[in-house]
Each structure stands twice: as C-alpha cells, then as structure tokens.
Design a protein that fits this description.
By secondary structure, this protein is an alpha/beta fold. It folds into 2 domains: 157 residues, D-Maltodextrin-Binding Protein, domain 2; 158 residues, 3-Layer(aba) Sandwich (D-Maltodextrin-Binding Protein, domain 2). Helices cover 42% and strands 17% of the residues. It is built from 15 helices and 12 strands. Strands 5, 6, 7, 8, 9, 11 and 12 form a 7-stranded mixed β-sheet that branches. It has a 5-stranded mixed β-sheet with strand order 1-3-2-4-10. Helix 1 links the parallel strand 2 and strand 3. The radius of gyration is 20 Å and the shape is globular. The N terminus is likely disordered.
Length: 334
Amino acid sequence: MKKILRNVLFAGAVSLSLQGVASADTTLLNVSYDVARDVFKDYNPRFIAAWKAKSGETVEVKQSHGGSSKQVRAVADGLEADVVTMNQPTDVSFLAEKGLVATDWAKKFPNNASPYTSTMVFIVRKGSPKGFKDWSDLIKPGVAITIPHPKNTGNGRNTYLAAWGWALRQPGGNEKSAAAFVSAFLKNVPAFAPGGRDATTNFIQRGQGDVLITFESEAELIAREFGRGNFDVVYPSQSLLTEFPVAIVEKVVDKHNTRKQARAYLEYLWSKDGQENAAQNYLRPHDPEVFKKYAAQFPAIKTFTVDEVFGSWDKAFAAHFKDGGSFDRLFQAK
C-alpha cells in the first residue's frame, strides 16, 4: 500500500526530483547546504533508478537548500528531513545534541560519514587582473572579497578557517599573527552574502568583488551556468580540506517508516555510481578508481584538516564562531 505523502515545511529553495513524483511509494526529504543543489539534482535520479531496480519500489526525493546552519536549525525546529547532507561536521553535531541524529553519526558511514571532499579556491575575473596567487594577496589595499557569512554558512566558516590555518602555517606563524591576518582579510569583505550560491550570484552576475572564495566544486558549476570565459580558478599554496558529512535524522525516519530507504540513499553516495556523480560535479571522490579516472580535473594542492590545525571541529567552532569568539571580536574591530 502506498504511503501517504506528508506535508513538509520547507526551508530554502525546494526542488522535486523528476522521477517517481506521480506514483511514489516512499518520499524522502534531503535537507542540504546552499551550493549542493546541482549535486543532488544529478544524484537523485541515479539513486531512484538503482533503488527501483533493487527493490521494485519507487522513491520520490525532495530537496531543501540554504545556508547550512539555517538549514539545521530548521530541522531542529521541525522541518522533517529524513536525511541531512551538510558541509561541516558541527551542523550535524548540533542535530545530535538535539537528539535528532545519532551521537555516533560519524561512525555510521565510511570516511567520517563524508562521501567526498573538496577544498577552498579563489574564483577571479578572467586574467586575474589583480594578480591573485595566494592568501597573502587578498589583504592588499583595494581588494574586495566576496564570501558568505561565516556565522551562518559552512562555506563561510570553511573560508574563515582556511585563511586562519594558512596564516598559522606560515613560517613563524602563531595565533596572534593568524588573528592579524584574518582581521585584515575581513576588512576587505564589503558585505557578507547569506549563502554560498548568493555569493556566487553577487560575484558573477552582479560583478561584486574582485575574488570569490568557494569550494573547488563550485567553480565547475559556475562554468556550466555562466560559461568558462568569464573567470579563472586560482589554487592557493595551501587550503583547507573540506568534508561533507551526512546523517540519518533518526526520529523522522522512525516516524515516517523510511529508515531503510534513507540509509540506502546515503549509502549509495559511496557506490561507484554515487562516486562518479561526485566526480562529475567536481567533488573529490574517495574511491581510488573513480578518482584516478577524473584526476586531471583535480589539480594538486597542499591541504590541511580542521583536526590538524584546530584540534577538532568542536574546538574550532568554540574558538571562532560561538558568540564572543574570534569572528565576533575581529568583525567588531573591522
């Protein structure tokens, strides 16, 4: 018997998969971060077809996208997501603290529950007229940086930590010099965008800023949408390795009896097909064969992790993004 399609409170833009809508046996809601729209727009039909072939069941997948922290707050406030697919572990940990996902969520799937990785790069005007090559170039006078808000978005937080970590890892670098560098960096941000896709729109369509800092994967999505002749991608000397944790929302899947489908949906991200989809969307797959196949599109870059530089995501969040943390102090001084 078909399950009754539930009414869902939507946070951010919502899109329906094109398959399985009219006669779905099960509906899943994936609540995700802002710039993952195209990733899952491509992924959902792959999963739907694979699950149909395996189980005979038709699944409908709904997507909800927005600033990552706003998205998880919406889930905590009642948005009935079956799964969350985010771009920073602290957002999933927030839901664990609320009793919505398992406390050991990072052990529920391989690779700390992150099916692929990326890094933060610079998107610049064609020909890089201001000669950007590394993080140090971003604090020069007259530079305008475009990024989303570090308090509300994973994209913004990853950028902030990438800048801090780069400064910390320079010869003689320490917390004081890193704070000074990030302070100068923030002074060159005229205004924060509310989300990663908003930052991209501001930079590409509205011509705001000299440099956009975003995920490596976003560069290809920009190329697909706006053309390849309008910008260049600059890989700095070092940048942050970014992870994209996923989790089942325990209470929701139990309520809707969708645990089996939700788990299969996330597990398929690690399948050959799921890893191919990641690589085709310029996310770095974990599968070595798939990575080798697409290696030419992933330039070598030296990366560091949050754990290596800051101890853990929990420590990084407490030190930098909680009220009164380094971001608040440096932004107020701006």
